[in-house]
Amino acid sequence: MDLYEKQQFSFFLQTATERCVTRLEERFRGPDAALEHLQADPEGDGVQLSAFTDALFEDFLLNSVDGACFVLSALPNRHTSVTEPATVEETLIRLAKTLFTELLVQKTTEALEQRSRYQSV
Predict the structure, then answer these.
(1) CB atoms within 10 A of CB 26
(2) Residues 41-83: pLDDT tens digits?
(3) How wide is the angle at C-alpha 96 spanned by C-alphas 92 and 100, nearest 5°?
(4) How far is CA 80 from each of CA 43, 55, 94, rounded to the nearest angstrom?
(5) Rounded to an integer, what distance in angstroms lies between the CA atom of residue 77 and that of residue 83?
(6) Angle, to 10 degrees, between the axis of helix 88-119 and the axis of helix 3-28?
(7) What's the DSSP call for residue 61?
(8) Are the beta carbons of 80 and 99 closer than 8 angstroms?
C-alpha cells in the first residue's frame, strides 16, 4: 500500500470512529453507557455496527471490488475465514466490511474508554 493510500485509509478509519463514537454517545447519553452497549453486543439494538459499516462504505464509495480491495490492502495481518459460497465480488466486499467492523469496534472502544476517563476528571 502506497503512502497516500495509507493516509486515505487512516482518514477513513478516523472519520468512521469519530462518527461512531458521536452516534453512540448521543444514542446512549454518554460514553459510559455507549461503551457498555458496544461491549455487550456490537450488533445489538441501538448499536448495529454492521449496518453502520454498510452506510460508511456507501458514503465513501467503497462498496465495490476496488473499494473492498483498498480496505483489505490496509488490513493484511487480520485473520478471517470465508465460509459461505458467493461470488468473488460478494466475498471481497463482505470480507472488507467484516474486518473493518472488527477494527471499528476496537477503535471505538478505545475512544469511548478515553472519553469516559476524561469525563470523570
Answers:
(1) 10
(2) 999 999 999 999 999 999 999 999 999 999 999 999 998 877 7
(3) 175
(4) 18, 22, 11
(5) 19
(6) 60
(7) T
(8) yes
